[in-house]
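Progress against Task 2.4 (sequence-to-structure conversion) is shown through the following example record, which the project officer requested during the mid-term review.
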Amino acid sequence: MKPNNKPKMLKLTDVVLDPDCQTRREIDQKHVEQMAAVIRDGERLRGDPPVVFADGRTNWMADGFHRWHAHAEAGEKKIECEVRNGTKTDAVEYAMTEANRGHGLKLDEFAVSRKVDWALTHPKWQFFSDHHIASMLHCDHK
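Structure tokens generated for the chain above:
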């Protein structure tokens, strides 16, 4: 269930892009450039804003890495984010289970494999069945 948080403007420099919170191997620069062009034209990007978890000291990006890069590419200093209370651990779990669910660039084989590896080694998830993990990660149980 999505919290009813009003989006908040954050400085790009106040958002941490930790690789642990990113399922993808790399940023798709072509996609970033396309979104940056939209931003430079003064238009809003379609879809939900990036999701950030704030622990009082750090704002952890959990979903929206390409949007962050597009804003930077467009010369923006701030980005509108949905800010949730939580830790880096919460951001990682959100990134693995909720990010790009039904929107954004399709996850490639590397990203799906990364999510599955994370779930199979996570103390909270490692004893779940393959079918349960697949359901939570929105992928095939095989």
